[in-house]
Amino acid sequence: MENDMHGAALIERVIAKVREDGWEAADMPDLDEEPVPLAPEAIDALRLPGGRPLPPSLRRWLAFDSRLPVDLGWYEEPSAPVLAGRSLSETTEEMYGFGPGEEGWAAMFGEFEALLPGRGFPLVGGSDSRRLLYVGEPDSAGEYPVLVTDTDDLPYVAVMYPGLDVYLADEAGLLDLDFDTYTGLMDHPVYGGRMREHAELTRLGTEGLEIQDLYFPDAGADTD
């Protein structure tokens, strides 16, 4: 692995970029306030749902600023984070803000929870689509995948980024990534290996799944 393209080393580059230029993505919370670093002992004590360790990217980011996760809705107080997360249906309901007549969407995303029983943390990006950090199994870099959900036609879920490290780098405009499709990084020369790890670990496959693929897998996307 190129050491400065993954994990904490990539986040170091993200921090330098946003300190200098702010976020390139317009929907990221601004940096008008001073960052709120989390003490090393507090970071060491933190655990993700299920007692899982923090990914290197999140450890490094929290050492720089614990306020961004508050802005993203992960917890309420920068100095006292609790990383509980929510189920996939609860996370999508929070992200989309389903209104009257849309209650069925959360239930349909709930159908994916047999496949994805882990907890989610909302991120920004998209309109019909939304992104979330999914705490299931980590990849070989110790990172958890960023999933994309879509409501344009039928509920759809896929691996979009191999981790918070790459997601934040993209939001900062640090990387030149090509997304012809949501899963466009599967063949990326640097991130493709990690993407395919998550495609297998989540059982979402390299193209993601629509809801009907849960019941008729041979008729849907690639699940190998």
3D structure, described in words:
This protein is of the alpha+beta class and 224 residues long. The protein has two domains: 3-71, no CATH class; 88-219, no CATH class. The chain has helices spanning 7-21, 40-45, 56-64, 68-71, 88-96, 103-110, 164-171, 192-202; strands spanning 119-122, 129-135, 146-150, 156-161, 209-210. A five-stranded antiparallel beta sheet has the order 1-2-3-4-5. Strand 1 (119-122) and strand 2 (129-135) form a beta hairpin. It is globular and about 50 Å long.
Radius of gyration: 17 Å
**What's the number of structural domains?**
2
- Straight-line N-to-C gap: 24 Å
* Major β-sheet profile: 5 strands, antiparallel
Give the SSE string. HHHHHHEEEEHHE
Residue runs with pLDDT of under 50 for 5 or more positions: 220-224
Shape: globular
SSE arrangement:
Blueprint: H1 7-21, H2 40-45, H3 56-64, H4 68-71, H5 88-96, H6 103-110, E1 119-122, E2 129-135, E3 146-150, E4 156-161, H7 164-171, H8 192-202, E5 209-210
Antiparallel strand pairs: 1-2, 2-3, 3-4, 4-5
